[in-house]
Write a structure and sequence with these properties.
Radius of gyration: 18 Å
Number of helices: 8
Subcellular location: Plastid, Chloroplast thylakoid membrane
Strand content: under 5%
Distance between the termini: 56 Å
Keywords: Chloroplast, Membrane, Photosynthesis, Plastid, Repeat, Thylakoid, TPR repeat
Number of strands: 0
Structural class: mainly alpha
Family: Belongs to the Ycf3 family.
CATH topology of the largest domain: Serine Threonine Protein Phosphatase 5, Tetratricopeptide repeat
Shape: elongated
CATH class of the largest domain: Mainly Alpha
Helix content: over 70%
Function: Seems to be required for the assembly of the photosystem I complex.
Number of domains: 2
InterPro entries: PSI_Ycf3_assembly, TPR-like_helical_dom_sf, TPR_rpt
CATH architecture of the largest domain: Alpha Horseshoe
Length: about 170
């Protein structure tokens, strides 16, 4: 049974009904509809912590989806799954691919920055100040872009940037 038919909560059911209605009304090829169904099912599985199922659905959606903008969100979500599973290098690969296709989602920039910051902390723990500084500077760059797009978000990142001198706004 497709995941869309198993949703137990009101919000998931409401989203599913509205998404299905949109799919019927909007002009889309059969392949685009199938890609969206896999993306939607992947998002549902992901929100429930069912990462293997979510990953399978997202990868299936990637094979079907041709629009670069839509592909960017699929790639972003695959990156989130890898982050949740502690595979930070793999997560960065997917976030970079997502940002190549769509450089503007602040959440993708933020999550990329979070991973870069984490890798900077790990380099510090392992006694590699050069790598640490490079990762922290990279994190600052991604946070700067995310904050520019969403100025009222990422307050901790803004504070970190200020306290470490990695901001140009003084």
């Amino acid at each position: 049974m497709p995941r869309s038919q198993r949703n137990d909560n009101f919000i998931d059911k409401t989203f599913t009904v509205s998404a299905d209605t949109s799919l019927q009304v909007l002009p889309a090829s059969e392949e685009e509809r199938e890609a969206f169904i896999h993306y939607r099912d992947g998002m549902s599985a992901q929100s429930e912590g069912e990462y293997a199922e979510a990953s399978w659905n997202h990868h299936k959606a990637m094979r079907l989806e041709t629009d670069p903008y839509d592909r960017s969100y699929i790639l972003y979500n695959i990156g989130l799954i890898h982050t949740s599973n502690g595979k930070h290098a793999k997560a960065l690969e997917y976030h970079f691919q997502a940002l190549e296709r769509n450089p503007f989602p602040p959440q993708a920039l933020n999550n990329t920055a979070v991973i870069c910051h984490y890798r900077g902390e790990q380099a510090t723990i392992h006694g590699d100040p050069v790598a640490s500084e490079a990762w922290f500077n990279r994190a600052a760059g991604y946070w700067k872009r995310a904050i520019a797009l969403s100025p009222n978000s990422y307050i901790e990142a803004q504070n970190w940037s200020r306290t470490t001198g990695r901001t140009s706004d003084g």
